[in-house]
Amino acid sequence: MGIEGNETADELADAGANEGRMNDDRSAEPTISGIGTTTRALADAATSDWWSRCLTGLSASYRKWGLGYSIAEPPELRLPRTLLHRLLAARTAHGDFAQYHRRFGHTDAELNCLCGYAKTPEHLVFCEISQRKFHAWPAKPERPPSRPKEGRRYMSAILAHPKLFEDFLTVTQYFAINARAQQTRDLTSPGGPPTELRLTETKPPFFNCCIAIGRALYIISARIIQRHRPNVRTGKLKCSLYAHTPSKDSSYTQRSATLKKDLEESEQGRSSKWREED
User: Domain for residue 119, yes or no?
Assistant: First the structure.
């Protein structure tokens, strides 16, 4: 048996709620907007469940970034193809990385970055090349990443937002600088610089800087020697920028002078012959 006052209040509340309603009241029926909202929520839940099941079958290199899935157009498709390649390679670890080259037996690949450390996706934010431009990083943290957890957190942020990834590469020029260094190594000699001029990841950064300077001086001296190599035919130094071999020009001038002299002698002979006949 309830309290009499409460029962009376409940009866009055029910009467007020039902007062004025008709049997064919449409206010309780679903609306088009409500149906759409419910449908989208169910679709998102189904997509999330499907992605959770598929995520376990992906590689650990991809799962560690914590990337989501959406049925909408991925924003990374708006990137230039060169940047899209870099983004997908960093997400999947299938690219110019030391572990990838070892896995597929690429014996002629360069496994280390220009700074001397092994190429990994996370090294992109730890490298000296990138950290020199830390003041201009997009969405930069409070300090440059120095621990694996900090580097992975920032890498996850820029990999999830392709525009940030594009801005990061534009600011740091990481891949462009490494590509130029690789081209320089390929041009100087097939085997690259001597072993003692290669960077080592077991030495401190200052030692690596000294080694990098020595390697740069080696490359410059090799180019100067090739450019100023003595010419065997003329015995003179040839420089592709400031001089050229004058063998063709001198021979052409000599032939022209000889021909001119022969013509003058021929004209003089004719003139003397005509004077004798007269």
Answer: yes
